[in-house]
Write a structure and sequence with these properties.
Strand 20, helix 20 and strand 21 form a beta-alpha-beta unit. The strands form four sheets. The protein has a seven-stranded mixed sheet, sandwiched between helices. Helix 2 crosses helix 4. Among the domains are: 128 residues; 82 residues, Calcium-transporting ATPase, cytoplasmic transduction domain A, CATH 2.70.150; 112 residues, Calcium-transporting ATPase, cytoplasmic domain N (3-Layer(aba) Sandwich). With 642 residues, it is an alpha+beta fold. The chain starts with 21 loop residues before the first helix and ends in a 13-residue tail after the last helix. Helices cover 50% and strands 18% of the residues.
Length: 642
Amino acid sequence: MTAISSMPILDHTDDQSAPLSRRERRGLALRLVLAMLAAGLLVLSFAWRLISPDEGDLAELIAGFAAAAVAGPVAAAAWHSLRAPDLHGVTDQLLAVAVLAAWAVGDLTTAALLPIIMMIGHILEERSILGSQEAIQALARLTRGRARRITPDGAVEEVASERLRPGDRIELRPGDRAGADGIVMEGRSSVDLAAITGESLPQDVGLDDRLLAGSVNLDGRLVVLVTDAGEATTLGKITTMMQAAERAKPPLTRLLERYAGRYLTLALMLAAATWLATNDAGAMLAVLVASCPCALVLAAPSTAIAAIAVAGRHGILLKGAAFIEELATVDSVVLDKTGTLTLGTLGVTSVLPAEPGSERAVIRLAGSLGAGSSHPVSRALAERVPYEERHVVQEMREAQGLGVTAQVDGDACVLGRAELLSSLGIAIPVVPEHEGPVVGLARAGQFQGWLLFADQPRQEARAALDDLRALGLGRQVLLTGDRQSVAERVARALDIQDVYAEALPEQKLARVIAETDAGFRPLVVGDGINDSLALKAGAVGVAMGAQGTDAALASADLVLMTSDLRRLGTCVRLSRLCRRTIRTNVAIGLGWTVLLIGAASAGVFGESGALVVALLHNLSSLIVVANAGRLLHFDERAVGGG
């Protein structure tokens, strides 16, 4: 870990994700130049000793200049850590004391080499954990560039994406990347969302579909009405949340900081005791350097940053480092129904034709009639029938809330509720019992069949819940504001035993609190405004998909950028692997530090003990960072739950 916190690659303030300012970059460059100058002077000092052994005073003077060159950054780092104390400051202060002691005993070579060695280790470590910072910058670049804005008179002008505003219309040609969120007004195409949601397969979009900033248009031409731009886009919110996650300190780091002052006192007492017991300045310096908790300081942050980067690659947005460890402890799951376990849209569940074998004809006619209406039932029907297979529909009229009438090939056709068909004198059979909407179809005065609709469970829901059970989350609760009968139907389909239906937002909150009071640590999953209180009350709250409401996104601790429930299992596996990695890193950091202190106080490393210890400290730090870096190879298909 760094011994010079005033010369950071990532600054040692809470805002670690902020890019370096021009002033900070100049300061870093100056310190690197001073370190290189000091290294060059030390090489000259060693060379002079070899060439002219009798002129040791001149070699010592050159070493003094080298020590003076790096003394400024060391003193600045120690002063900064006193003014803005944090865990890294312990290392800075211990190094400053070691350098000061080296000056006091006349060991100028050690006074110069210690800061140089620690700086080299610092740069290597910081380069190793910049992955998530680069990921954030890559996300931000997705919305930069040029956009084709359509002017009110229909002309197309190229503008910077930053100039787009809600209400603008933009044209996307094949290969173009959307610079803002919007709604498709014209055209059909496939779009690549991999950079945003982690989805490898393209998604088809058409009229009235939502398009996210950063998505790439693959084939057809699209005209998009901008709804959100800049930081208000889904991608902008992701970037902001990732920055906040990097700034947040893991629980272990906060715990260590609580005892940082006591640790510094203990380290100084150990160094003083070594001096009194051995009267060996080299051993005392070695103990001071050995006490620097470099690897221990890195144990949690490097692992958390790697986990945040990996989660982002899987379409999982963690809003804070603390939630990674919290997620590893959940043992139950509370799920909303509509839009979470189910698609949130109506779909055709059954077709009951008047004449057996005519299901396809009924669907084709109903879908043709539904294409002219914006009602959810009509839209569900229209999606079942490709455009080229639809009948030509004329003279369509819509009876609000009842259905539609129209002419198809000269025949009067009706699609709607039983009341509408009866009012038009069409004889209908008994309406089948069904929890969702039931629609009848007639042609030329003859009843054609019933169509039954319902909000269907997501295709992957059963597999996702089975996966969670295998991970130890056997307690699964369906918590919804929908009717009891509907909730029980979905629960039966997904093998969920506990169902709480017709719940208001405050009742959802009370149910989650009751889960906690019963000794469970619930993972709460939802997507709507009515879920926001419950999301906040759970051990970890998960908002489903980018289409979730702003209230749900704000209340959740974790956001799934797709609505694929299988990502829940991925989250749990990643968090548990992260927790194991942190524990391993803590053991390495703590054990290595204790071992070095013991060896240094016993004089094992001899006269050059401080320099040897500094090199070994950098080695331990790199081991910790490399172990954390293993998370970057996380494969959700290969990692078990542990």
